[in-house]
Fold each of these.
Amino acid sequence: MPPRRIRCILATIAATVLAGASVVLVEVSPASACDNNNHCYGTAWSNPSGIIGLAADISPSCMRAPNQTFTTDELWLEDSSAVNWVEAGWLNQGTNLSIGGNTTAGIFGFYADSRPGGGFHAHILEVGPPTGTFKHVAINKTASNTYYGGFDGHQGLSTGNSMTPTVGQWGSETNGNTTAGYSWVRNTQYFSNGSWHSGTGPDFSVEVDNNQNFSWISQPNSYNAGPSC
Amino acid sequence: MFINSGRRGILGGLGPILLAVLAIVVLAIVASQAFFSRASAAPQFRSASAGEKAVALGVALAEAARTLPEGGTTTVGEITTSRKWPSNITKVSYVASDRQSAASLTGWEPTNPENVAVVVVRMTGFFRVEIPAPRGVTPYVTGHQMTIVADSTTGQMLDFDLEPTDSTVALPAEQALLPTS
């Protein structure tokens, strides 16, 4: 392991011990190009027992997606197989690209899921939300085969998804090296054991890839994430 | 007094009858509203106009150009400029509808009150679609049946579904873009 990375990890562990928090180390992935086959992330993730919902208020201060790229600021719930999930949040898409079936460039509020038994589904909840405004984003399981997805009051039910989630992820995704989508996120919540809880869950981990950011504003209720403006 | 007593008697006798008639009328109105509400909530699909066909064609070609499987020989320019269907697509059909009705074809039930006129495009063949996905998941999926619900004015995709198999179920009132007649 490179000495620089060892020092980074040790510094993070020391800071964590001093802070008295139960946070696993921050891992910075080696710098590798982001492209259509290798997406880059700035995310925190946790797996509270019985988690079935996530919510937060998300405001990108900027969004930029050059030709054939995209960036998101969003939330994910996934199961232990890592092939089934639900997600919702902000999407900024460039030209000459289909992302989840959307072929139009622009900024959107969206929901998408991948279901047990196959099938990928995506839905545009809002067209052209202005950056710099907080939008409430929520995803949660409402019945055995149904998930709720909402963005700024635009909402719907995804039927036919029987996934049992185990992991919640928070942050940003991109496939480009010159994209932008730095967001302010507050009022993070997760739903487990019959009620909503403040924060992102105990024992979370943070991972940051090339062209990405994730940093706490006030752990664990607010953070910044996404490619820099 | 005798006359007043008589009028009160007559009116007292009619009172319950009038109330019963009123109740029946109210129930009939409520029942008819419920019936027509159920009728109007049923999914609505219809043959598309020429303008809606043009939007559907644009949506289909845009998807065809950006969901090519690896190893295909048709270029994006040939698809979008020359309107040449690539060989990975065997059927394209379309129909006009509204989002509230059509979204169910993609496993979605919008619960906010917005509703717009849409075109539904269904494409059969083999497709590769880049997708947003959690960390650690392959960021593209493949499938054999693609359904797109798009705003019939702007062509904006609103709902999308990619299935691993072709259901072979036709869209209601569908018309064909491919094969061409």
Note: Chain B is about 35% helix and 30% strand.
Amino acid sequence: MAKTEPTSPGVGCDVGTGNIVSARKTAAGVETRRVRDAFLELPLESKKMLKLANVSYVERGEELLILGDAAMDTANIFGREARRPLSAGLVSSSDVDAMEILGLLIKNVLGEPSRPGEHCYFSVPAAPVDRPGQDVIYHRGVLEKIVRECGYTPTAGNEAMAIIYSETAKENFSGIGLSFGAGMTNVALAMNTIEGLSFSVGRGGDWIDTGAAKSIGSTASRICAIKEKGVDLNAPQGRDQEAITFYYRNLIEYAIDQIAAQFMTIQGKFSLPRPVPIIVSGGTSKAGGFLDLFKTVFDKKRKKFPIEVSEVRAATDPLNAVANGLLIQAMQED
Amino acid sequence: MSSTMSGEVTIMCLTDEVILRDLGVHLTRGHRVNVPMSTAMRSRDLSAAKLDGTVSIQTLRSAAVRAQEYTSSDTVHSQAPRHVPAPPQVDLSLVVAALERLSGEVQGMREDLARLARAGATREDLSGLLARVEERLAQPIPVFGRQVDRTGLVPNPPTPLEEPTEMFIPSNLTGGAQVSDLKVSSETSDSPQLTGTAAALKAARKKR
């Protein structure tokens, strides 16, 4: 694939459970590259069939690997589930295969650096507050190593803070950023570029799929397919969509309650001299009617919410907001 | 629970996990949630959890008071680049629990001695019990994995468990296989605001 020459050095890379996205400034604008964070292992005998179907693969030892979007498509054909290198948003230290797959995917999304040691800001979630004992140190270390092996100078950037950088310039980089991902939801609060609070919760799109599937005796894959086909969370049709809406609502309530609870721990120590906007982003927030549902849920909790909120709005580009925010930070390095 | 102006309480989990089904609340240790006073008072699960000692309940100031604090003219703008949370408090309940266990052991040994004395214990019986006592005294008092020194009058502060500073991460995570034709979707959007945003961020950071 021909790559446009970058005009400004620096690249942002959002490494998520569902997708890996890079953003780079070029003469034509901002180039974003995306690949599904997934892979599928098949036996060597499948080679002929994959060639006939024109599906690209990688041969590794005694097996074939299909990476990215093709992995999801092929898995559906074989009636299997594609594997993911990340679990609930984080790298698992016991899965070296998954780390290598992640390395390959990131390498392809980043491409070659425009110059040796080009700065790359990659996303790291905050530690989950509802999973005590789980930290992000190992996860950050693995991504740092991968990005360095790709020829870049790596810097970790908080996922939700990246949303604040990309979406709240008019509020002088102040606001509450929420990134509703597949494996987790990240939150950050900042005032005048200064981070006051950041955390994550272990609920995201996958949690919705699993919960909705369990509640109606279906499968997570089927629920995910229904979601991606299109659902209006404000007017769900049928039992499947009602279940999906129920878990979406629950996720939003949970995230808002956690923001309030976490803010209470720093209350009085972090000044908020004016109301701030809430920005919702992430692949899970792309469901039809998500913003309206969020506003409805928030309005019920607004009176007791400890932070004054000026407005609730969606990121201008929910899938790329994190990568764009990381790119903005990378551009500061020169 | 006493009534307050705000009608809100904070429920904090004191155990590994607590589920309050009639409130739709699921908490893990140390985490807390606010609920309306009226709802909390109606909750049977909360009452049971309070009796069990698995939750603590505190009343909150009203939202109006909180809002007033935020809009107060004498609010000082923070100069700190990042909030540093307060250091964790020492959990005396762990020490109390360890002392209670010790008391139980001492009581058990006392009863053994009394029983042996009533039964006309021989020198060998008493030697065996004495050996057990000496063996127990030689062991440090465990307080959730930390050891309390017996030599001083005041227990020494527990030595923090040393966290490993190095983590092993495999090398060559990107070079295992060549993926020349991996399909990566690419799009270029005209984003004039991005350059402006980057410049604005630079300026904002210089100002602070």
Note: Chain B has a mean pLDDT of 67.
Amino acid sequence: MRIRKLELLAATASGNFGTTLEFQEGLNIISAKNTSGKSTCIMSILYALGLEGMLGSSQQVPLPDAMCRSIMEGEKEFPVVESRVRLEIENRKQEIITVQRLVTGKNLDRQLVRCSMGPALSDSTSQYPFRDFYVRTQFAAQDESGFHRFLAEYLGYDLPNVPAFDNTSVPLYLECLMPYFFVDQLTGWRDIKSRMPTYLRVPEMAKRSAEYVLDLGILKRAIEKQQYELEQEKAKQTWSQAAVRAMDRMGEEQVLIRGLPVEPTAIWPPLPPPEVLITDGENWTPLATAINNLQVRIDQLVEEEIPKAEEVSQQVIEQLRAAEEKLVTFADRLHDSTKDLMAERAHLESVHKRLRALLEDYRQYQDYKRIEDRGGQIALETASGICPYCHQSIKDTLLDQNVAANPMSLEDNMAFIRDQIATFRDMWESAKEVVSAKEKQAAAITRRIEELNENIRALRGTLKSDGRIPSIAAVQEHLHVENRMRRLLAIQEAALEILKGFGELSKDWAKIQGKLKDLAIVGLTEKDEVKIRHLEESFVEQLRQYGFHSFPVDQVRISRESYRPSRGEYDIGLTSASDTIRIIWAYLLGMLELAHALPTNHLGLVVFDEPRQHGADRISFDALLHRAAASKNFNQQVIFATSEDQETLERIIADIDCMYRHFEDRILTRLP
Amino acid sequence: MSTATLDDVLNVPFTFQRRPSAIPCVMRPAWRLHILSLILDQCRGGRASLEQLHVLNWAIRTDESRQLFLQFIKGSRAPNQIIVRYDPSLSRAIDFAFAEKLVSRHEKQATLLEDIQDKSEEKKKAPPYRVILSERGKALVLQIHEMEYAFVVEKEFLRAIGKKVTQDQVQSLFTWSPLS
């Protein structure tokens, strides 16, 4: 981004005041005395872009009275009726826009930014289309009508969502990046750490912003990792839902899939492979076996002809007796099975009850722990194990002190409950399985009984019927067996579908796991390392040039963890005020210089409002300005506002190619 | 397996070490004092009779009891469907609370039976035995409310009851007589 023009305008009852500043590529110096409004100009740049949120969460205007309340001319004071700022900027694609924002007015008025799609300051005659946007409201960064969303796009930024707590993500706001491009007079020179707008609650904000500005691969990987972790969660859910559906579907047919993993697995089929079992009320047999046996019987029946009733009447009588006996047996079995089932259900319920009680007890202990950890003003003697009456030590229980055993400590008791919960959870899970299997057993027995009843009816029918017609029983058996075969084959197909589905899910899971393993060690890539090293070299070189003296410069590094200046292993710590200035200047300029050598997301622009300096340890900006001037060669821009003594300043910049504008008196002057 | 071998096994010196026991959190005095303070804070004027405390102490204990009690005060459950369990440890908890100066109490000690028998005349008068939340107790309650994540379920339960629990309701729970 390049700043082209800045216009400040304050309208009073007796005329307009203001100024217009033009900026060029390379170094731009605004020179004026301290109270003349130079900081106003610098802050107006930030304000026009709606980025004052970089400084804090306050909705107050970061501009002084001259723009907001009243403006001085000589000795006279004029109340400001309305004031605004306008900023004309250009992006990499050489598209020029002009941003306008009110300074006076209510919050709502000031949250509006009018953006003209053209150089409205340079060319005041043409009419350019414009759009209104919002700033400093809740969703301004992401909403269509938010200025920062537009601005990000305009600057060619694809701002990511960075991982936040609890697997959520939060947008990386423009305000988080601005500290690398803008240093305000009041707070910007304190130290290199505390300049981030932490109220925006982006975790590891400084790190993420640096990663984005320098376009480090590590950020992309961190984001990718989080996305895959989300996918992993989803895959787990999909899997367990599929498992539940499969169980239900098969359960309807008295079929069980044994060995179906409830948690996702990358290997399919798992060992041992899932087995499809079916029950007839007595035994569980593999479905394949049941089908085979049935096929054998079908083949048998096909061999034999359907006999006539009179041929088989003796047989039928025997079959009838056998069936009726079997019916009695199965009725008994059903009765036992039902009793059994009820007992198992009762057991399940009691285990569940115990589990609930344990969970409640654990929750209460968690509350107790919170009280203990917090301490607090109301100290209870009881809580320290001392009797509040006789001040002797007591056991931590309300039970009779003589009878009760020594209670466990808080932590031990909680660990104990956790063990119990784990145990009872296991018991509950297996009890559930037992109940489920027994339910299927009972259902199968019921079904057998129905079949037997049908059979008996058919046999009786055969006996009563005309001897010459085919045996009803035999016909019925044919039909029955064919139906059963159809049903079993359908089940088998369904089961295969289900298992194939799991095969697919397993493949997806394996892929996610593979990716996560790749991303497990999220560290700097090789290209990242090159960039950091470049920055480090530039930074150290500058510190030497500028006369850094708090400690030997060769101890200075750029941390690979925080990307901030460090001394050996540690953060650079406290240095003299002048050295802090050197550090901040060298760091930001180092990033600017890196930006023209290697691909980054840097704006190509840095704005400095000179720090207030006191006493003997004043820093001369000579070397710093000389270095900054080099930005001109790379189409970059450095803006520097200073109140340095005019003669000294003009001597320093005598041999520097820069834009220099000096204000003898107030910057905001009456306009014609 | 011959008995000789078993004897050999048993004939060695044994030592027993008494390990600490796990106890339910409700038996921890400090926890109880916090709950007691919360309950008292919820009663009218920060004071409650022994009956009220027994009822609320029982009610706040488990999911079932909380549910049952809420249904009762809403009127959807008759008093004789509910069995309020006396808790002997409550008296000790109140004693501790008094010693910690979290509560103060009226001097006259009455039994619960007296309360019920005097019901007709004394109905309008306040019950003789009262437990009253002190300033220190109120400060403790404030502290508890400041902690957003502590006692969430209990706070929610007490909020749902509101100040609605009257002496009549409490009595009807104890005597299983319907509310008039």
Note: The CA atoms of residues 290 and 598 of chain A lie 71 Å apart.
Amino acid sequence: MERQEIFQRIGTVIGESAHEDVDWATATEETTIESFGFDSLAVLDLLFDLEGEFGVEISAEEILNIRTLGELVTFLEGRLRR
Amino acid sequence: MRWVVPPLALGLIRLLDWSWRYQEFHRERLESCLSSSRPLVAGFLHGRTFALLRSMSRPRNGRWLSMCSKSLDGDAMARIEERLGFEVVRGSSGTDGLQAIVDLIKRVRRDPGLGSCLAVDGSRGPRGRVQGGIISLAQRTGGVLLPITASAKPAYIFSRAWDRTLLPLPFARVTIVYGEAMEVPERLTSVQFAALVTELETRMLALQAEADGYSGQGDPLPVRSS
């Protein structure tokens, strides 16, 4: 899966998972996940929704260690290659 | 010690349980939840664990998944709960706690007949203050949250423990009270999430007061939200 496609699908997931309105049009790979309002519990929604969207397993530690959208894309690229 | 304490503690719990007389209030609320196909999340106050443990381990009261902290105390508690028939996931606060919630959710999804039970005030409190993890758990496992509590008389209260653990004494009357089930939608805004936390806290404190009223057990420091 191409990096850009992963990025766009992440946008769809974040739009559904976030507890607040999301402005994806301005998001870049440097945008932090925290900027979408994901605190330590709300990130659970993101974890499960990403697992559902990409068909991968993600641990709590892994999702908490990912800071930016770029890091998330890289992580999912690696997970999808397995 | 870690190999000796759990069997001794388990023996003590079973012996005490043999002597206790139980009375239940609003049991139909539990039975209504158990008879539905939706997985159930039971919430209780950490300090009332001992009074609830044996009762909840009985087959007629469902099959339960619980969480114990990754500490020496948690090791002992996990062994005791496993011997009583609970399935135990380890974790408490921080990343460990979050992973434990994830593990609970995934385990319940694999076996929807398994309920999960969690202390609403966590493993460290403050006493009576609802932590959000139980709401997240209910969100992702079917959306039904049942507050449960217990009281007993006579009982010893560990006043120095953060949760003021209540241990029913031999031949105590143990009172179990089931609250009204709460629906927890899968999707919540942060405002809705916070409102549910507050609602659960209010219900738990009222339920505890009700249970203490039935049992006649007053705590010099009753549970109140700080």
Note: Chain B has a mean pLDDT of 89.
